[in-house]
Specification:
The protein contains 1 helix and 21 strands. It is mainly β. It has 2 domains: 101 residues, Jelly Rolls (Sandwich), CATH 2.60.120; 132 residues, no CATH class. The chain is rod-shaped.
């Protein structure tokens, strides 16, 4: 039982203020409490009732969306209400006059706990709020020759290294422009490359020969003016299209761009995989 109220046995009725119309009209009595650390606080509304600021307490509204787990105990009736963190709502209270309560927090508060004691009846209704959804990237699973730094899950850092052959590992875009029919791009042509696509003229073909390529490259192949440009594999290279099938050539539409990942080991073992088509 509470230390500040009289003791009652189980057979003795307790008078409460529930379901009474307040003579002063509906009112709420705000109480703001901060906890620098976990602990308990006595809330005594005796002065408020003696000054006729509020005649009785029948309910409570509390917003605990940013607070710790709370336990509210009513004097005399010993009604105990658990108010979890991340919750808000209305609670029915069984109290005597003058109304007294003990509020206990299991941790320090970031901001004041806001309680509104009500002199009118309420329907017990509590909302448990879900944590906000982060739409950003949460994790990336590393594959072969790829490492992932997930220190910041929403902004992971992905690093890749090349295949065998001692190429040192490169991930880069090509910078050479070779328009016209029958042009061939080999592994040696894209050394030190950066960020400019291959172009192919109308009806032209671009042959990929990565038999001497050593490392991992990201290539943009762009056709223009009209449909009909093709991307071909020659030598030790072969192309995997977006369906996962190996093909000898890919026809492109007007102004279409292919994003291709090419991998070679410098010993004639190479492949080119279409990642995206724009």
């Amino acid at each position: 039982m509470s230390n500040f109220g009289p003791a009652y046995n189980a057979s003795q009725p307790i008078s409460t203020a529930n379901n009474k119309f307040p003579p002063e009209g509906p009112k709420s009595m705000p109480v703001f409490i901060s906890y620098p650390q976990a602990g308990s606080t006595l809330i005594d509304l005796t002065t408020e009732t003696q000054m006729h600021r509020i005649s009785q307490v029948q309910g409570l509204y509390i917003d605990n969306t940013d607070g710790p787990n709370l336990i509210l105990v009513c004097d005399v009736t010993e009604q105990t209400i658990h108010i979890p963190s991340n919750a808000q709502g209305y609670y029915q209270l069984l109290t005597q006059n003058p109304p007294k309560f003990t509020l206990t927090a299991d941790a320090a508060t970031v901001k004041d706990v806001q309680l509104f004691f009500l002199n009118f009846p309420v329907v017990h209704s509590v909302n448990y709020l879900l944590p906000p959804i982060n739409p950003g990237v949460q994790s990336i699973v590393a594959g072969t020759n790829v490492t992932v730094d997930n220190t910041d899950p929403a902004n992971p850092i992905v690093s890749a290294s090349g295949g065998g052959g001692g190429g040192g590992g490169k991930v880069q875009y090509t910078q050479i422009i070779k328009p016209g029919a029958g042009q061939t791009i080999s592994g040696g042509d894209i050394s030190g490359a950066a960020f400019t696509p291959f172009f192919a003229a109308t009806g032209a073909a671009l042959d990929l020969d990565f038999s001497t390529l050593n490392g991992l490259y990201l290539i943009l192949f762009q056709s223009y003016n009209a449909a009909g440009s093709t991307l071909n594999s020659v030598g030790g290279a072969w192309i995997i299209d977006q369906s996962g099938s190996a093909v000898g050539s890919i026809a492109t539409a007007q102004f279409e761009v292919l994003e291709i990942m090419a991998v070679g080991d410098g010993a004639g073992n190479s492949s080119a995989q279409v990642l995206n088509r724009y």
